[in-house]
Specification:
Number of strands: 25
Strand content: 15-25%
Largest sheet: 7 strands, mixed
Distance between the termini: 52 Å
Oligomer: single chain
Radius of gyration: 30 Å
Length: 610
């Protein structure tokens, strides 16, 4: 554990609160000189020397967590990605940089980090060139990549050790690829064998004018497809003669990886690509230039932090929501996007669990996916083999009030939410397993459960560390091309209290009618929560009532008073143990419970029958 210079120990989270601002300021100092950066070791030494809080663990055990917090603080305050300035001893950004994590190609990772450092220099460097600047790699990295390129050579085996990416123009007047990919996951595209496109390559479709932007990212899953085996998609061909002209060619099969949203298409427009070195609109198949490649990765990668899982069967079997599992391929050999999505979940992401027409709770991703044999508590189903992907979860919290689909506004469910939405165009939940959702959907879910911090104003950051306290708050963040969206929501019982009391400082007890500050009122379930169906728990306005801690809540929970079919309070059981108890109980007898209504009469009847 970290220690202060006087020997006092503290937890990592406590140390991070001390180290964080100093680390942030140290990185800003590195950015104040154009081309400046700092190594992990130099940063660690600086923050420990400046704060007097000394780490007792090896650097790699804590520096990553600290930099994640620095990244979150910088993003919240609208600052550039300061952690791009922290490099390894070999001057590389490494494979742990969050905005290029999972990218195998080192050159692309380094280009993304270089672009991010440029934004830091633009903000903080006093000597930033007046004529402007372009992203630059550190000298050791540039030399290493240059040597690798010379050894590999164009078209050699070494040059294909990393993903090869292409841009292919798509003329909507000939073939409507946008409509085709909206309807299916795979399409066939006529090949030009001289281009050298191989199975496993990435293809970006460029929509010609008037779109003039990249529209889709695809993976080449098969080449040399004969015309006789081409997918029947004639409905999307706008020019039959163009289709027939391609009859003698071989075809390649493209599997959709991502459909770019309207905002992403704007960021990947021809005008933007020209500013990054593209000479003009693609006239044919072309390898993606390095500068455009880093632009695409930067603008098309959405770090999604909210996920939706359809979990009816496992919920019924009491799986306790500790893990998610999905196979690799369906019985017919196809890969399914809603299974593959498990591979994109990151540690700390939030998953909302949907079962039997209700969102029933949330959990947190404990670790990224790993290969695993099908767990025994998962159904078999229509897929190939028993090996799949598994994601472990933590902190499952069942909602006090399940959220029905109707509580998520229809216009949100019908919006184009990007590729892989859990909703059909009609707004219904589609069949599938694991889907990314946008902050607006998450906000609607939390708001319907009373967990949203503020549903009436723009969502603003409000951080309190989650320490298990029932009134704690958590900040959830989704980085998008237009900035950082945040959803702040409460956890556990405070959600139901929020629904019941809103922003009121005082309220009346549902039994005795006396008014008290809300901190002296409990949310009492008229019908025990454990006995409620999902539909009854949604009926929170009638299932719960405020009950004061000065006696009404205890008498009601212990069954010493009944609320009859007319709302009149009667006594039962032993309330004569002391004169004070008898006096208080008698003061309620014969009164009408304030919370009683014709709508909750049956719930009171259930309580009386226990």
């Amino acid at each position: 554990m970290p220690e202060t210079t006087d020997g006092r120990s503290m937890s990592n989270s406590e140390a991070f609160k001390v180290w964080g601002p100093v680390a942030r300021q140290t990185l800003i100092e590195a950015a104040s000189t154009f081309g400046g950066w700092i190594t992990y070791t130099e940063l660690a030494d600086a923050i420990q020397n400046r704060t007097g809080v000394i780490a007792k663990q090896q650097l790699n055990y804590w520096i990553g967590g600290l930099l994640e917090e620095v990244s979150e603080d910088a993003a919240r305050d609208g600052e550039p990605r300061l952690t791009s300035l922290c490099l390894h001893a070999d001057e590389s950004i490494g494979d742990g940089y969050p905005w290029s994590r999972g990218i195998a190609d080192e050159s692309v990772r380094e280009e993304i980090a270089a672009q991010d450092r440029l934004e830091c220099y633009r903000r903080y460097a006093s000597n930033f060139p007046a004529q402007g600047a372009v992203p630059a790699l550190p000298s050791k990295v540039a030399k290493r990549l240059e040597r690798r390129e010379k050894v590999g050579g164009a078209g050699s085996a070494t040059s294909r050790d990393h993903e090869v990416a292409w841009i292919i123009p798509s003329n909507g007047g000939t073939f409507d690829s946008i409509a085709a990919f909206a309807a299916r996951e795979e399409i066939d595209w006529s090949e030009t064998t001289s281009a050298g496109i191989k199975t496993g390559d990435t293809v970006f479709l460029y929509g010609t004018a008037p779109t003039s932007a990249l529209t889709h990212k695809c993976e080449v899953v098969q080449t040399g497809v004969p015309f006789e085996s081409v997918i029947d998609d004639r409905e999307f061909w706008r020019d039959d003669s163009a289709f027939l002209q391609r009859k003698g060619r071989s075809w390649m099969r493209l599997r959709l990886v991502q459909t770019f949203s309207a905002e992403q298409r704007e960021a990947l427009s021809l005008d933007t690509m020209k500013r990054h070195g593209m000479k003009g609109a693609p006239q044919g198949r072309m390898r993606v230039p390095d500068t455009i490649r880093s632009l695409i990765v930067r603008e098309s990668t959405t770090l999604r932090h909210f996920w939706w899982v359809n979990q009816g069967g496992t919920a019924d079997r009491g799986q306790n929501f500790r893990h998610l599992w999905a196979p690799i391929r369906a019985a017919d050999g196809r890969r399914m996007r809603h299974w593959d999505a498990l591979e994109a979940a990151s540690r700390g992401d939030i998953v909302v669990h949907y079962a039997h027409r209700f969102v029933i709770g949330t959990s947190e991703v404990a670790q990224t996916h790993r290969s695993a044999v099908r767990p025994p508590d998962f159904e078999t189903g229509e897929f190939t083999g028993d090996t799949g992907r598994e994601v472990w979860l933590d902190h499952f919290q069942e909602f006090d009030v399940p959220v029905s689909l109707e509580h998520i506004p229809l216009e949100l469910r019908k919006d184009d939410l990007g590729e892989g939405s859990p909703f059909e165009h009609s707004g219904k939940v589609q069949q599938g397993y694991f889907f990314p959702i946008m902050p607006t959907i998450a906000a609607a879910v939390f708001g319907a459960n009373g967990l949203l911090e503020d549903t009436s104003t723009e969502l603003e950051p409000s951080i309190e560390a989650y320490d298990g306290d029932s009134h704690s708050e958590r900040l959830l963040r989704l980085n998008e091309t237009d900035g950082t969206a945040t959803v702040t929501y409460r956890k556990e019982q405070s959600g139901l209290r929020s629904l019941l009391f809103g922003n009121r400082a005082t309220a009346q007890c549902g039994i005795c009618s006396r008014e008290y500050p809300v901190r002296f009122l409990h949310t009492a379930h008229i019908k025990s929560r454990s006995a409620c169906t999902l539909e009854e728990r949604v009926d929170w306005k009638n299932i719960v009532m405020p009950a004061c801690v000065f006696g009404c809540d205890a008498l009601f929970e212990m069954g010493l008073l009944n609320v009859g079919i007319d709302g009149v309070i009667s006594l039962r059981g032993n309330y004569d143990e002391t004169s004070s108890l008898r006096l208080f109980a008698k003061s309620l007898e014969g009164k009408v419970a304030r919370a009683f209504t014709t709508e909750n009469r049956n719930y009171f009847a259930w309580r009386n029958a226990q």
